[in-house]
Design a protein that fits this description.
Elements lengths: L2 H9 L1 H10 L13 E5 L1 E3 L6 E2 L2 E6 L2 E6 L9 E4 L3 E5 L1 E6 L8 H7 L2 H17 L2 E6 L8 H10 L7 E4 L4 E2 L21 E2 L3 H13 L5 E4 L5 E3 L2 E3 L6 H12 L5 E5 L4 H8 L3 E4 L5 H10 L3 E2 L2 H9 L2 H24 L19 H8 L4 H15 L17 E5 L14 E4 L2 E4 L5
């Protein structure tokens, strides 16, 4: 944005924080001390696709105690009747950037301090959870180091509102790689937005440092700059299979996993051969790559929303991005037909936080059934984030991460972009009519 506008934004930041938090329930609001019964016209069973009508959920503390058309109402229970809505699990975004916001991405990391970006990340986390995203995977701070661990920990302590987070700290990249400051004056020595690791030994050092600073998993850039030539995607790989395996083995030592930015071949194949947790963007997958992903249950995370955003940002963006977007749609249909597993991630950050339900809409638009997208988001997303059996479904013993949407998402997936009610861990964060 222009310099005067940027200055005004910084000067008004404190006021924005005060006003916006005063307008919404406080983040530190704990789970209710009394039981809560949620009642609605419908309730979605994600695993079966069955729609209960009516639907009720008994919440005790931070977890679900019972689910059904009717449930036991303890004598001291608070009943919240939400009316003509569908109860469903809180949404999961497996690819977010809390430390990015709309504007020149490369300049944000140069012109904005890490403390400033952390404040904006706090606001982004709030916007996401209020939009119904109760769990997310932050795929790199883009030069803010381990600042995302502070945001995660503050959310976990109830100090600020936000989703459950898995965080990576800085992503890992090679010298001159995807996130390096390649287009600046070299004499200025502008820092990379990622942590350099140019060998297997350097990968181990970088991963150990990030884990020391609080990372949950590792994000690596496996492919570099993308280009379309003769109707086909071309992108250089950045790490060998052996190097990726070194990273995976080191990360597994502390219970984490490795996710990769990989748009095309041969990097996507190397990632599948190594056994990464997910292949994000996944625009181009060979037959062998898809076979391995299906066999190893490695999900593709398409991130249509960010491609669409850049394509629609300007006329120049449309000319540059339209061929890639059309190619991505064609390849996505091949991936569906091949039985590739999917998770849902939007790459939100360069476009406004809290608007990323668009990703689910686009996955339906370009070939998947609404239920399949919801299962990719909620069941596969819970597994990918390491919370299988804890989130992603409305079942007894699961965390009470619950949202309500108008209509039925099985009939119209766009309703997930109009969340009316949000509960996270048994605490009500948003009621119908609030913002």
């Amino acid at each position: 944005m222009p310099a005067p506008t940027r200055t005004l934004a910084v000067l008004s930041l404190s006021l924005c924080l005060t006003v916006s938090w005063a307008a919404s329930p406080p983040a530190a609001q704990p789970a209710a001390s009394h039981p809560i019964v949620l009642r609605a016209a419908r309730l979605l069973e994600v695993d079966t696709g069955r729609m209960l009508s009516p639907g009720e959920i008994l919440v005790e503390g931070e977890r679900i105690s019972a689910v059904g058309s009717t449930v036991t109402h303890p004598t001291d229970a608070q009943v919240i009747d939400l009316g003509d809505v569908t109860l469903m699990p809180g949404l999961i975004d497996a690819h977010v950037h809390l430390f990015l916001h709309p504007g020149a991405e490369d300049l944000q990391t140069v012109q904005e301090s890490v403390p400033h970006r952390t404040v904006l990340a706090i606001l982004a986390a709030r916007d996401d959870v209020m939009a119904g995203f109760t769990a997310e995977r932050d795929m790199g701070t883009e030069g803010a180091g381990s600042a995302d661990s502070a945001v995660r920990d503050a959310i976990n302590k109830g100090l600020i509102p936000g989703p459950r987070l898995r965080i990576s700290g800085n992503a890992i990249d090679i010298l001159g790689g995807h996130e390096d400051a390649n287009h600046f004056n070299p004499a200025q020595q502008v820092m990379s937005n990622a942590t350099y690791a140019n060998s297997a030994d350097e990968l181990v050092i970088a991963i150990r440092q990030q884990h020391k600073e609080g990372s949950d998993f590792v994000k690596m850039y496996e492919t570099g700059p993308d280009s379309m030539r003769d109707g086909t995607l071309h992108t250089p790989y950045q790490y060998t299979v052996a190097q990726l395996k070194t990273a995976i083995e080191e990360t597994a030592r502390f219970g984490g996993n490795v996710a990769v930015h990989a748009t095309g071949e041969p990097g996507t194949l190397y990632a599948a051969q190594a056994g990464v947790a997910s292949i994000d963007h996944a625009t181009q997958l060979s037959d062998e790559t898809m076979r391995l992903m299906k066999a190893k249950n490695i999900p593709a995370v398409p991130t249509f929303a960010i491609f669409e955003y850049f394509m629609n940002e300007s006329e120049a963006g449309a000319r540059r991005e339209r061929p890639m977007f059309d190619y991505k749609i064609k390849e996505f249909k091949r991936q569906i037909a091949a039985g590739v597993p999917f998770a849902v991630g939007s790459d939100v950050g360069p476009f406004p936080h809290g608007t990323q339900a668009r990703e689910l809409e686009l996955m339906v638009k370009y070939g998947m059934k609404p239920l399949a997208v919801l299962q990719a988001d909620l069941i596969n997303g819970a597994k990918l984030l390491g919370w299988a059996g804890q989130i992603g479904e409305l079942k007894s013993g699961y965390f009470a991460d619950i949202i309500a949407v108008p209509g039925s998402p099985l009939d119209d997936i766009t309703v997930v972009g109009h969340v009316a009610f949000v509960m996270k861990g048994g605490a009500v964060l948003r009621m119908p009519g609030s913002r």
